[in-house]
Amino acid sequence: MINQTAFPRFTVLTGNYGSGKTELALNLALRFAAEGLKTTLVDLDIVNPYFRSAEKTPELEAAGVRVLMPTFAMTTVDIPALPPEIQSVFETPGDRVIFDVGGDDTGAAALGRYAPGFARYRAETLSLLVVNCMRPLTETEEDILDLAGRIGARGRLGTDWIVNNTNLANRTEPAMVERGERILLSCAEKLHASKVITSGMPPVLAACRLKTETLGIVRRMIPEWMEEETGGEP
Questions:
Q1: pTM of the predicted model, to two decimals?
Q2: What is the Cβ-side half-sphere exposure of residue 140, based on CA atoms within 13 angstroms?
């Protein structure tokens, strides 16, 4: 199990739609806050109005997490804008800041706006590419490398780590996670990423035979259809 101290001041989560970036962002933010760290979660998704970290603002704020989001996010206004408060995370003291970036290279364009800040604090920034190898467009090594290249170009930030978040919700099997690990270890070598970690539900991770460090998560963004199917249990 990876230690929370492995994460520096700034953690940037990128990836395709459905990769699990938001789940990971929520889990990290709540864990950091529980450890007494001054934590900010930046919902930088200007593309997708669904399954975004801003939906959990009351829960996050109750736990002591500061939440920043695009202006008009969670409203009926079509085009959200990035407020100046987001820039403030580079100017004011803080223990941990997590950026939950919108899907693929379109969403990563918003990240590029803050490239000067990340360049100034590059040694304190960890850029994670979150991948679910059971999702369309990230099932093969070729697709993943293409996605990483496009996100890096638009977001102006390379990939430091890759997160193997391969899953099929409640139907996840260890073989799926292990296959995802094999693909992403190969991708990491080609992308010069220094580490691959595997995230997922603890019971599934415990049943896997993995080479990478793991990060157990609690499912917090449960679709309504899954709540009905499971009775609300993660």
A1: 0.90
A2: 4
